[in-house]
Amino acid sequence: MNILVVRNDKLGDFITALPTLYVLKHYNPQNRIIALVAPLNRQLAEACDFIDEVIVDTGGDILELAFKIKQADIDASITLFSNTRVALAQFIARIPIRIAPATKIAQIFYNRRITQRRSEVKMAEFEYNLELTKALFADIVLEFPRPLLVFEGAERAYRSFCAEYGVTKPLIAFHPGFGGSSDANWTLAEYIELVKLAEENPHIDVVMTFGPDEEKLYEEAKKLLGESKVVLYRSRGSVVDFALLISNFKLFISTSTGTYHLAGAVGCETFTFFADTLFASSARWKSIGAKQSHFMIPLDRSGRAVMFESVKQELKNRLSTIV
After folding, report:
1. How is residue 118 annotated by DSSP?
2. Rounded to two decimals, what is the model's pTM?
3. Which residue in 120, 130, 123, 80 sits closest to 283, CA to CA?
4. Residues 89, 91, 96, CA angle at the centre, nearest 5°?
């Protein structure tokens, strides 16, 4: 069976779809699994051995997207997050079985509509995604390995990084950037305070990572750190290149953004900051990783200050165990 899985939005959202793609492939290895993704997720999708084909949604008109889908000869589709454009394209492409959550006006173009009420957050986003596969295979097993993403070349990439930046000890990373569905974060000054706390530990090295569009944040961090020996790393290359690198980190500290989900997927332990709201909570956006600690940042100033002190203590405790 040729099965299309649609998750054509941001990096973190796509990573929540990976378990779904995995279980569909492993339900029957003869299934041909096709992923419809946004351009930024193309290389990551192509690197997954449980995805057989990738269709890139470049944002063109409905007929262009429908033509791409039609060419793949799809037997069934599972749309994890829908909009009218994506739904209508599948309808025009005449996919026989079209599965999606029963939300929004787009649901009229699907013939298997599943009531989920994700706004109630009774499970995490990736778990809601997995549940949709039962509409196609009632007896499907929803288990997946952790880490889910294991790529060749990770050790080589890490050795090269260590040689370039003089890293000689276990490495922890701080990623202060903001993006995706993240609704809360510490200020850069607060991140620097956490970084300096980590620097006090003589048994680890520390890196701050920045996305390719975070030049200003990088320069501000560089200024605030002064003569610190913390490595400042601006991500270069693809998402897969970054995944190879962070799979070797001991701890990845960030807000709830795409890089956090990537770290969890490749097996790096995470310390992650979430807004103290149901929509943006860890209950909804926990990663697919096995090792994760979550911190909800209160909206009020006093509560935020108390939480920051708690984070400092938890971080200090965790760093003392890294060898």
Report:
1. G
2. 0.95
3. 123
4. 130
Q: Bridge-partner residues for 294, per DSSP?
A: 272
Given a contact cutoff of 8 angstroms between Cβ atoms, the answer to whether 185 and 214 are in contact is no
CA-to-CA distance for 189 and 207, rounded, in angstroms? Answer: 16
3-state secondary structure of 238: coil
Q: For residue 192, what is the enclosing H or E element?
A: helix 188-199
Length of the chain: 323
259-308 residue pLDDT tens:
999 999 999 999 999 999 998 999 999 999 999 999 999 989 999 999 99
Retrieve residue 31's tokens.
């299934």
Orientation angle between helical segments 62-71 and 84-92, nearest 10 degrees: 50
Domain 2-135, CATH: 3.40.50.2000
Cα Rg, the chain, nearest whole Å: 21
CA 60 to chain centre: 25
202-232 pLDDT, tens digit per residue, is 999 999 999 988 999 999 999 999 989 999 9
- Give the N- to C-terminal CA distance of the chain in Å, as an integer: 47
DSSP 8-state code for residue 249: -
pLDDT higher than threshold 60 for residue 181: no
Looking at 131-135, 180-184, 210-214, which range is the least confident one? 180-184
E-strand stretches of the chain = 2-6, 32-37, 53-56, 76-79, 97-101, 112-114, 171-175, 205-210, 231-234, 251-255, 270-275, 292-297
CATH code for the structural domain at 154-319: 3.40.50.2000
Which part of the chain is CATH 3.40.50.2000? 2-135, 154-319
Burial class (CB in 10 A: 0-12, 13-18, 19+), 30: exposed
